[in-house]
Amino acid sequence: MMQSNPPGPGIGIGVAELLQILDGSGLRLASHLTRIRLPLTSPTLHDPLGTETGRRSGILLGIGLHPAAPQSAEAVRNAARRGFGAVVVKSLGLSVETLAAVADAEGIALLVVDDELEWRQVDSLMNSALTTASEADSSLSATPVGDLFALANAIAALIGGATAIEDLQTHILAYSTVPGQVIDDDRREGILGRQVPDLPENAEQYASVFRAPGAVRVPGLPPGLDRLAVAVRAGVQPLGSIWVVDAAADLDSDALRALERAADIAALHLLRARSTADLARQQRAELLRRLLEGGDDSRLLATQLGLDAAGPFVVLAFQPDLAATGDELRLLRLIDLIAIQCEAHQHNAECVVIGGEVYALFSGAAGSDPTGVEALAARVADRSATAFGITVRASVGSVVSALAGIARSRHDADLVLLLVGTLPGAGSVASARDERSRLTLLELAEIFRRTPRLVSEQANRVLETDARTGTDYAKTLRTYLDCSRDSAVTAGRLSVHQNTLRYRLRRAQELFGIDLDDADDTLTLWLSLRVAEFD
User: Domain CdaR GGDEF-like: where (predicted)?
Assistant: First the structure.
């Protein structure tokens, strides 16, 4: 049996200790050796196509290792030969006993993570746990994982200032209660409301904290006090922040370094708190995505989501105006804002991100009240603009009475988003209820595109001539018909004299063979010109 070289006594972290720190995160031991100690180095990613570079140590993340594949057993043996102390795999719903026996024979540990966890999250969990063991002060690392208030008190006692731990939505998750530490009104208001006060300087301050590689000093605006602050991250993934009041403005570089070490501990706490909730949220989001896309299994999906099949239902869609890259942090904060606001509007309201849009589904009393949903959308749009500087468009789909209609409500919400983004003077929020006529025209435009023979022959000739010569016959005819053939109203809307309008209409009839006295021809002409606007 080959035995990987473990760290010396007291050095590194034992497998049992690692499992205790990450208890509840979806990690378990499949093999039987529990006294193996692992060095405090970041996990290594398994790369079957890569070139081996001598002995290694620590944990190997077995990405792509299938429990039933013969090469997986050889990969575990090879990991032991190279010096790794543990291999992490996913069971994929299969037995891992064979791999566990190989690991026991080689003297290393086989760890299994839940299939639903992303490898990126596994890597973050491992890094946070190992960083905790290697860098944390004993006063902090002794804090029970999950007790954020105890951690806040430990940080406050260590650094010497009142401490608050926040999430990405600037909710105060925990705060210190060490006697005698000075606080200011902003801190007092935040504790009372469990929410950081909405101040003009917030956006710039938080941006500086999350841009910085470590802890920073944030000057207070009188009468506010200075603070030390640090972003809490798991790898590169932001989780929240820690803020320490510097009442006498005398906390030094040692305090900054201590705060950075505290951030590693806080990351573990926040990940522990989020891991189970995140997994459940991801599963529910996937169910909602399938429900919004429609299909024959809508009743089963609704049952799994706990929805009352009796309805009614309505879909709310948000479209943030964000850059393609570089706005991940602001998007995360926006998604949190939407989720919290939707939960406040209806308990257990579901949200999911599909493409570039965020969708929410409301049912029952909330589903039958599109006015209330519109008001919610307006609050989110306003809050997003003031707190994050993000322009958000929102649309409310049709209210539907059956599960099978949810996909229709989502479709209508998508169409309304198109209208909100293209119509001049449109606000940030619109509803299918108010845009029903335009939605009809929008869908007719799609039908006309798929069936060109439906388009009026005269309309085609008008549009082609305008495109070729720069004339405006289509607008003249469309406006004239929009105005119920009232010359005075049409001339006013086009800002031309009535004689000019009459000349243009007469010329159009001559050029394109249009008979405005034929009701059927006029209807198809107007409809063809009208839906052409939606191209």
Answer: 299-417
| 187 closest CA partner among 163, 154, 214 | 163
CA angle 66, 71, 77 (to 5 degrees): 105
Backbone angles phi, psi at 171, to 5 degrees: -80, 140
Q: Which of 316, 318, 342 minimizes the C-alpha distance to 390? A: 318
Could you give the CA distance from residue 374 to residue 317 in angstroms, rounded to a whole number? 11
CB burial class (10 A; 0-12, 13-18, 19+) of residue 444?
middle
Residue 283: both structure tokens together = 């599963």
Backbone angles phi, psi at 414, to 5 degrees: -65, -40
Q: Tens digit of pLDDT for each residue in 515-529?
A: 888 888 888 888 887
The set of residues, in sequence order, having a beta carbon less than 8 Å from that of 327 and lying 6+ positions away, is none
Give the span between the Cα atoms of 426 and 364, in whole angstroms: 29
Interatomic CA distance for residues 48 and 78, integer angstroms: 11
Tokens describing residue 6:
């473990």
Exposure of 373 by Cβ count < 10 A (0-12 exposed, 13-18 middle, 19+ buried)?
A: buried
List alpha helices for 231-352, DSSP H: 253-293, 298-305, 328-345
Query: Residue 109 carries which side chain, given as an amino acid letter?
Result: A
pLDDT above 70 for 101:
yes
Give the C-alpha separation, 130 to 7, whole Å.
14
Contact indicator for 80, 99 with CB cutoff of 8 Å: no
333 φψ region: left (φ > 0), alpha (ψ -120 to 50), beta (else): alpha
| Residues 122, 61 contacting (CB under 8 angstroms) | yes
* Number of C-beta neighbours around residue 251 at 10 A: 22
The pairs formed by 44-47 with CB atoms below 8 angstroms and a separation of 24 or more are: 44/84, 45/119, 45/123, 46/75
Q: What is the DSSP letter of 403?
A: G
Q: Could you say which DSSP state residue 405 is in? A: G
pLDDT in tens, 387-397: 778 888 999 99
Distances (CA, A) of 94 to 14, 67, 69: 27, 7, 11
Instruction: Read off the pLDDT of residues 130-159 as tens digits, 9 standing for 90 and up.
Output: 765 554 444 555 555 457 888 888 899 889
- Contact between 57 and 85 under an 8 Å Cβ cutoff? The reply is yes
Which of these, 246, 252, 254, 260, lies nearest to 162 by C-alpha position? 246
164 residue type, one letter: A
